[in-house]
Amino acid sequence: MTNISKSITLLVFILSTSMTSSQDVIEYTNRYSIKDGTLAAGYLILAARALGYGTVFCTDSIPEELTKKVFNIPDHFTRICITPVGVPDEWPESPPKKSLEELVVHETF
Asked: CA-to-CA distance for 64 and 62, rounded, in angstroms?
């Protein structure tokens, strides 16, 4: 089994902020920041893999309050995810690709 802690080169925290005095900005932030942060993490994960790094999208494996305390993250930030990035000791085998017929539905479900 791979020793994960030795493989991690970097921990990336995707955060959202609610620090503003404008009600319009607060409503926008509440509505879109989690979606935007999730998309940013997804692109980071794709880019890391393209460069030969392994990573994963972690949301609740480490309590948010613990990460705020350990990394001194101010209260006005909300954690979207933690993304460890590193070079794995080995890559898992890819599952076989599904045929198009297994994925596409034509005019009915």
From this structure: 6
The count of domains in the chain is 1
Q: Kindly state the DSSP code that residue 58 receives in the 8-state scheme.
A: B
pLDDT of residue 1: 45
Q: Residue 80: count other Cβ atoms within 10 Å of its Cβ.
A: 22
Q: Is 21 among the domain residues? A: yes
Distance CA 50, CA 37 (A): 20
Measured CA to CA, the distance from residue 12 to residue 79 in angstroms comes to 11
Q: Angle at Cα 36 formed by Cα 32 and Cα 41, nearest 5°?
A: 150
The domain that holds 37 is classified in CATH as 3.40.109.10
What amino acid is encoded at 42 in this protein? G
Evaluate whether residue 72 is within a structural domain.
Answer: yes
CA angle 26, 40, 92 (to 5 degrees): 145
Domain region containing 20: 4-103
Q: Which range has the top average pLDDT, 40-49, 54-63, 93-102?
A: 40-49
Q: Does 108 fall in a domain?
A: no
